[in-house]
Write a structure and sequence with these properties.
InterPro entries: NA-bd_OB-fold, SAM-dependent_MTases_sf, U5_MeTrfase_fam
Bound molecules: S-adenosylmethionine
Structural class: alpha/beta
Mean pLDDT: 95
Keywords: 4Fe-4S, Iron, Iron-sulfur, Metal-binding, Methyltransferase, S-adenosyl-L-methionine, Transferase
Family: Belongs to the class I-like SAM-binding methyltransferase superfamily. RNA M5U methyltransferase family.
GO molecular function, one term: methyltransferase activity
Protein name: Class I SAM-dependent RNA methyltransferase
Strand order of the largest sheet: 6-21-22-20-19-16-17-18
């Protein structure tokens, strides 16, 4: 047994003591005791708790691997998430002030990725235990929309129907205006009989759509998502913002950062989360790597009332970013890249000198790199906000504006 004092929280949410020793479930300042194996104290006894410690609100917190920070006060989590962004920016010599963090309420996540395994009695369904392939049942998850918790019997039925004895099924369930939108991976091939049974399950559980691997997509109703005045039916599993509240917070800041623009380019546009609401006041060119997503966006725009003109382009913005000559016609840009950031596209934006840019990011490290390039090109950073859609997890998202001086 060894005693250590936690000095800081690592990026995966573990407490870190000198050594380094990683101690999950602990907070800075805490004195803890336990066995250390391979630099990890897996089952610490807390001898001196932090003032920031609370009892985890979720009864599954100890076993489930979904949340890493349920044992910390919300103000601690908010400050920690901001400090991760602050440090990433400081590594590039950037200082920034933060707007108030926007944390999504409990039980608002619109999508859950469940794991499911067949058992002798039926199936086991839930999330993975921390650092393990054991599945933990989570009927009272505090993170996901209750409609997703209510889908657990459906996920179980899907596993009984189509999981092989050995392989694990991954079942992505998303709420939609038409009912549950489900994508199943890792199952047996869907023959005609199984498709018939899937159809019966979809009816019984009021699903809008079930996509079974790459074999079969069964659509009872279009799984519409509201994007401004438009409704969009995304391709199965396509990116969506994690919570309606997080999406609204991001969108409000994006609209503020590009206010007054008349022609906007939306880079990494997805299915139109930002492009379609922006089209209420400005023309938009939406660029996205996935053709199925640009088609969904275009279809949503064509069926909506009262929007300005929206054009779409399927294009790989890592290999083939929009060039300054192509960017010259826009007076604002929105950019929301994946975790890798947008180094190539930002280099072109720096040349293009568009007056205003709204930047949404899910990775503080690549954001800081891309922000530094924009600042070197003469932009100033304005209105940085952490938007916490992944409550109690270590995931961090942010939105910021860049203006030319
Ligand atoms: C963080 S999501 C943002 C989507 C959209 N802005 C939204 O809020 O719903 C990033 C998007 O970038 C797209 N993407 C990933 N790699 C890309 C690439 N190399 N070129 C263009 N788009 C890419 C993904 O398909 C995804 O839709």
């Amino acid at each position: 047994m060894k005693q250590v004092t936690i000095e800081r929280l690592g990026h995966q949410g573990d407490g870190i003591a000198a050594g380094p020793v990683f101690v999950p479930g602990t907070l800075p300042g805490e004195l803890v005791e336990g066995e250390i194996t391979g630099g990890i104290m897996d089952a610490p006894r807390i001898l001196r708790p932090s003032e920031m410690r609370v009892s985890a609100p979720c009864r599954h917190a100890k076993s489930c691997g979904g949340c890493q920070l349920q044992h910390a006060r919300p103000d601690f989590v908010a400050e920690w998430k901001q400090s991760v962004v602050r440090q990433a920016l400081a590594a590039h010599g950037i200082e920034a002030t933060f707007r108030e963090i926007a944390t999504s309420p409990e039980q608002t996540r619109r999508r859950a990725g469940f794991s499911a395994k067949r058992t002798k009695k039926g199936a086991q369904v839930g999330f993975h235990r921390k650092r393990s392939d054991v599945i933990v049942e989570v009927p009272e998850c505090r993170v996901v929309d209750p409609k997703l918790s209510a889908a657990l019997p459906l996920v179980e039925a899907l596993a009984v129907l189509g999981a092989s004895r050995k392989a694990e099924l991954s079942v992505l369930v998303t709420t939609s205006l038409g009912g549950l939108d489900v994508v199943v991976k890792g199952g047996k091939d869907a023959d005609a009989e199984m498709q018939q049974q899937l159809s019966e399950l979809a009816r019984r559980h009021n699903c809008a759509r079930i996509a079974w691997g790459d074999d079969a997509v069964l659509t009872r109703r279009p799984p519409m998502q509201k994007m401004g005045r438009a409704e969009v039916s995304p391709p199965p599993g396509a990116f969506l913002q994690a919570t309606p509240q997080g999406e609204a917070a991001l969108l409000a800041d994006v609209l503020e950062h590009i206010e007054g623009a008349s022609h906007v380019v939306d880079l990494f546009a997805g299915c139109g989360t930002f492009a379609l609401p922006i089209a209420e006041t400005a023309r938009v060119h939406a660029v996205e790597g996935d053709k199925a997503m640009t088609s969904a966006l275009d279809h949503g725009w064509r069926h909506a009332q009262g929007l300005r003109h929206v054009t779409t382009e399927a294009r790989d913005l890592f290999r083939n970013p929009l060039l300054p000559a192509e960017l010259a016609r826009f007076d604002a840009a929105v950019i929301d890249p994946p975790r890798a950031g947008a180094e190539a596209q930002v280099a072109q934006l720096c040349e293009a000198k568009i007056p205003r840019i709204a930047f949404v990011s899910c990775n503080p490290v690549t954001f800081a790199r891309d922000a530094a390039a924009l600042l070197r090109a003469g932009y100033v950073l304005d209105g940085l906000r952490v938007v916490d859609q992944f409550r109690w997890s270590t995931h961090i998202e942010l939105v910021a504006g860049f203006k030319r001086q």
